[in-house]
Amino acid sequence: MSDEKKIKIFICLVFGVMIGSLTLLAKVIITKETGNFSIGTAILLIGTMLLGIFFSYLISIRKKGKNGDIPEVDERTILILKNYFMWAFYLIMIGSGLFLIILYLMDVTTIELGMLFVYQMFLFIIVAIGAFIVKKIG
Amino acid sequence: MAIENNIRVYRAKYGLTQEELAKRVNVTRQTIISLEKGSYVPSLELAMKIAENFKVAVEEIFCLKKKGENENE
User: Fold this and answer.
1) Percent of chain A scored above 90 by pLDDT?
2) A128-133: long-range contacts (C-beta < 8 A, 24 or more apart)?
């Protein structure tokens, strides 16, 4: 089996697992909140995800056509990303530590799950900003 | 010490555009621009690919520059 075929199979597997697990997660959450999870909802969820993947694929084909054989990512891009994430990691570690100390000094003993969701969203935003910066300067 | 290179000279000698060289050595055009400006030091693999592309030894294109060497010139 050629490497290209192996990569294609791997990508399909990753997307399959991603769609499957997200649908399962949605089923659990929707069932818990509303009590029923119909086939229509499942089709809508899976269809939306597949549509998203299809559009991303179309955009990547269009970009490939524009750029020809020039790769979009190379060793320099990876180096920029590595440096960015190193600094982001330091920032998050020190920032989180400071935040916890401040909370401790304020006599806060518990953290709401909702607040953790907000914190995770902040982490995602940092990753997204990193990807955007690399895209712009890479 | 830093590394300086003659990529621009060799590229002109072979009549290649930055895009064409990028294609040949399989990197982005921005990387070639950074290399020529001297703001990026390539990996050994990339340096050898570039040298191979111009059919010269790596040290013909890349050389060590001692600090302050350029300021005196």
Assistant:
1) 23
2) A130/A81, A130/A84, A130/A85, A130/A88, A133/A80, A133/A84
Please list every residue in chain B whose beta carbon sits closer than 8 Å to the beta carbon of residue A133. none
Token output for A6: 């192996």
**CB-based contacts of A67: which residues, under 8 Å, 6+ apart?**
none
Q: In this predicted model, which residue has the larger pLDDT, A137 or B36?
A: B36
CB B50 within 8 A of CB B42: yes
Whether this prediction's pTM lies above 0.90 is answered by: no
**Distance (Å, rounded) from C-alpha B52 to C-alpha B4?**
18
- ipTM of the shown complex: 0.78
Question: What band does A67 get if pLDDT is binned at 50, 70 and 90?
Answer: low
**Quick check: B28 and A76 CB within 8 A?**
yes
Interface test with B, best of A73, A75, A82 (most B CBs within 10 A): A75
